[in-house]
Automatic annotation (TrEMBL):
<dbReference type="GO" id="GO:0016830">
    <property type="term" value="F:carbon-carbon lyase activity"/>
</dbReference>
<keyword id="KW-0560">Oxidoreductase</keyword>
<keyword id="KW-0456">Lyase</keyword>
<dbReference type="GO" id="GO:0016491">
    <property type="term" value="F:oxidoreductase activity"/>
</dbReference>
<comment type="similarity">
    <text>Belongs to the short-chain dehydrogenases/reductases (SDR) family.</text>
</comment>
<keyword id="KW-0663">Pyridoxal phosphate</keyword>
<dbReference type="GO" id="GO:0030170">
    <property type="term" value="F:pyridoxal phosphate binding"/>
</dbReference>
<dbReference type="InterPro" id="IPR015421">
    <property type="entry name" value="PyrdxlP-dep_Trfase_major"/>
</dbReference>
<dbReference type="GO" id="GO:0019752">
    <property type="term" value="P:carboxylic acid metabolic process"/>
</dbReference>
<dbReference type="InterPro" id="IPR002347">
    <property type="entry name" value="SDR_fam"/>
</dbReference>
<dbReference type="InterPro" id="IPR002129">
    <property type="entry name" value="PyrdxlP-dep_de-COase"/>
</dbReference>
<dbReference type="Pfam" id="PF13561">
    <property type="entry name" value="adh_short_C2"/>
</dbReference>
<dbReference type="InterPro" id="IPR036291">
    <property type="entry name" value="NAD(P)-bd_dom_sf"/>
</dbReference>
<keyword id="KW-0521">NADP</keyword>
<feature type="modified residue" description="N6-(pyridoxal phosphate)lysine">
    <location>
        <position position="320"/>
    </location>
</feature>
<dbReference type="Pfam" id="PF00282">
    <property type="entry name" value="Pyridoxal_deC"/>
</dbReference>
<protein>
    <submittedName>
        <fullName>Uncharacterized protein</fullName>
    </submittedName>
</protein>
Length: 703
């Protein structure tokens, strides 16, 4: 059997298989192509095979089907996802070693493995990196991340503050608490309600500013700002019958802001907590490494990290700023005896290994009995890069964030947050920026629309996107999560619209829709930039000046049919082979006109060109339905665009508008937003069963 290989042979086989998978699947794109995702979904096993596929077949399945559909953010400097980051080379190699060797580090067995000593040394190195004395932080362990570390901190804090309350109530219990813990008030022994009752407590509350997700349900000062209100904190600490845990955010997860500002402020909080026997826990998942920054450019950040050594416990993350493989966090506490009281595993004798070196068995100081050897990647990466290496990494991140913030400070469409930063001088505003940049659109409608995501992940081409209906379609698509190539004969117009969209969501492209070469270039550009193409909106169009049909110049007639009709032919000729090859299907949305079913005198040839658009849409929808390539059309009435003067015969006058509005029951012209909304619906999954449809946006004119 393949799985009976051992030792060098096993490692050689696995290494060869990994090389095969990576060689076959690594791409220069971070996000997988839609066809790769679809292929992977279709390849997934629908049931458990009785005999199994075998090793080689499974490796081939992973390399050919699954790996190409994975997000390759860890292989790229551009991370698309949450805040976990990639991995340094040293950490990645160490993580592979963990798979082959000690995967489950539970008990300190110094004659059988060095794993627990590596873990202890890695935690010492972490303390050193952060300028913390390892001798003080004797309860230290690795966890799955900041959330798990915060849970450890709250568990230890709760045990401690309840015990201290009992000691305050009954002085005779104090010595017992210092030695082994008083059973009458140990939450681990008697439960939270009985322990609190015996300690004379009515409540245990958490006092914090803006809490981490693992604290929010328990936090008491939710309405406080990011910085601590020390007067309010003092009032809460003085409440009778209440034990308190003070949680200090050292780089809050959503903003990067700090809850304290300097050693003096931290020392005041320590003094207040000592008086009331309260526990201080620092949630430093994002901000701890700010202690490495050593120049005046980073004074505001360093002050936010000052004094954390005065805390009782500290949470940190390794898979964020240390760049170790996910998932890895760490927890530090000054109270080793409290850890034993809370986490000691008293059951099996083989779990009670005793060390003369003082190294604790990990399962006795944390919540996990089964735990991965997360320490080795941490040890490896700290060994490889040292303090100066990590200082340089962090400085690069801060400089990058500040460059983004500086760009936003002068942007016409966005403003930097929080408002106090935006309204500061540029120097002061940038001094507060750490590694997170918050901003919002100045247009509240855009803020409202951002994140609704009806088109999340979709990629489209919009022709005539530099003005009018096209601009409305581009803006709606991008605010709904799509990426768009803004094609327009006027590059300046295309760039203006693209720059008004959410950053990175739109790319301007100068293109002539009557040129097959330009259509091919547009396809190449969008696939190169965004990795795929889902939808083409044929919006570019012109209208001749309203006049008697026999007086329309031939060149106007030819130009109108070339721009209004020929792009359907060219886009079909270029895109259909691409979509057939991809096997993912596709969508055309063609902008026709309500004048097609309701032609008006003096604009007959325009109506005829739009009639060709509608007829082609219906016919093509049937022809390519078998390939899951759909065609739909939009038929707007006259709109608030640059076409109005020609529609009115050459000039935009109130009298001319009145003549148009008299034919529209709703009494107004259509708008780019109207057309954008309907185009968004047609491009969304909600319209996936529609093809060959012509949707009227006409205020009732076609009725």
């Amino acid at each position: 059997m393949e799985h009976t290989l051992h030792g060098d042979e096993e490692i050689s086989t696995i290494t060869e298989a990994l090389s095969h998978v990576l060689e076959r699947s690594v791409s220069d794109k971070v996000l997988p192509e839609e066809r790769s995702l679809e292929r992977a979904r279709n390849s997934l096993l629908t049931g458990l095979p009785d005999e199994g596929l075998g090793f080689q077949a499974t490796v081939e399945h992973m390399s050919s089907d699954i790996a190409p559909a994975l997000n390759q953010s860890s292989l790229s400097p551009n991370y698309y996802g949450f805040v976990t980051g990639g991995a340094t080379l040293a950490a990645a190699v160490a993580d592979h070693l963990v798979v082959h060797y000690d995967q489950n580090v539970q008990v300190h067995l110094p004659h059988e493995t060095i794993a627990t000593e590596v873990e202890d040394r890695a935690l010492e190195l972490l303390c050193s990196l952060l300028y913390l004395d390892p001798g003080r932080w004797r309860h230290r362990t690795f966890t799955t991340g900041a959330t798990a570390s915060n849970v450890l901190g709250l568990a230890c804090a709760r045990e401690h503050v309840v015990a201290r309350a009992a000691a305050r109530k009954d002085y005779d219990s104090a010595n017992l608490l210092e030695e082994v813990g008083n059973v009458r008030v140990s939450i681990a022994e008697v439960g939270i309600l009985r322990a609190m009752r015996n300690a004379g407590l009515e409540d245990v509350q958490i006092l914090t500013t803006v809490p981490h997700s693992s604290l929010s349900k328990a936090a008491s000062l939710k309405d406080a700002p990011h910085r601590f209100d020390l007067e309010l904190l003092g009032e809460e600490l003085e409440k009778p019958g209440v034990a308190n845990i003070v949680v200090i955010s050292c780089g809050e997860v959503n903003t990067g802001l700090f809850a304290t500002n300097g050693m003096e402020e931290m020392a005041r909080i320590r003094t207040m907590c000592d008086v009331r026997n309260s526990w201080i826990h620092v949630d430093g998942a994002f901000g701890l490494l700010g202690r490495l920054l050593n120049s005046s450019d980073y004074d505001n950040i360093r002050r936010g990290c000052e004094g954390i050594e005065l805390a009782d416990s500290i949470t940190g993350d390794c898979h964020k700023l240390l760049n170790t493989p996910y998932d890895c966090g760490f927890f530090l506490s000054c109270h080793r005896s409290t850890a034993s009281q809370v986490f000691q595993n008293p059951n099996a004798a083989y779990l009670n290994a005793v060390s003369a070196t003082g190294i604790a068995s990990p399962l006795h100081v944390g919540i996990e009995n089964s735990r991965r050897f997360r320490a080795l990647p941490v040890y490896a990466t700290l060994s490889a890069y040292g303090r100066s290496g990590y200082r340089d990494m962090l400085k690069r991140q801060v400089r990058c964030a500040r460059a983004v913030a500086q760009f936003l400070l002068g942007h016409r469409a966005y403003e930097l947050l929080p408002e106090r930063v935006a309204h500061s001088s540029e120097r002061d505003a940038l001094a507060d920026v750490y590694i997170i940049v918050l901003f919002r659109a100045k247009d509240e409608t855009l803020n409202k629309d951002l994140g609704t995501g009806r088109l999340q992940g979709k990629v489209g081409i919009v022709t005539g996107g530099g003005a009018g209906f096209g601009a409305g379609i581009v803006k709606k698509f991008t605010t709904e999560g799509a990426h768009v190539l803004v094609v327009d004969i006027n590059k300046d117009n295309a760039e203006s619209v693209a720059s008004s969209c959410p950053i990175g969501s739109a790319l301007a492209f100068r293109g002539d829709v009557t040129s097959e070469k330009d259509w091919k270039s547009a396809l190449e550009a969008i696939v190169k930039k965004f990795g795929k193409l889902d939808v083409v909106v044929n919006n570019a169009g012109v209208v001749h000046k309203a006049r008697a049909s026999h007086e329309v110049p031939e060149e106007d007639f030819d130009r109108m049919f070339a721009i209004n009709v020929k792009p359907l032919y060219l886009s079909t000729k270029v895109m259909i082979p691409h979509w057939k090859e991809q096997g993912t299907g596709g969508l055309f949305i063609n902008v026709s006109s309500i004048s097609e079913p309701r032609p008006r005198p003096n604009l007959v040839w325009y109506a005829a060109s739009k009639g060709a658009v509608s007829v082609a849409t219906r016919g093509l929808s049937v022809e390519y339905a078998k390939d899951n390539i759909r065609y739909n059309a939009i038929r707007p009435s006259a709109g608030e665009t640059g076409m109005v003067p020609n529609v009115l015969g050459g000039s935009d006058t109130p009298e001319g508008r009145e003549r148009i509005l008299a034919t529209v029951p709703l009494g107004r012209l259509s708008t780019p937003e109207d057309v954008g909304n309907v185009a968004c619906f047609l491009a969304s999954d909600e319209a996936s069963y529609m093809t060959g449809a012509c949707v009227d946006i006409d205020g009732g004119r076609g009725v």
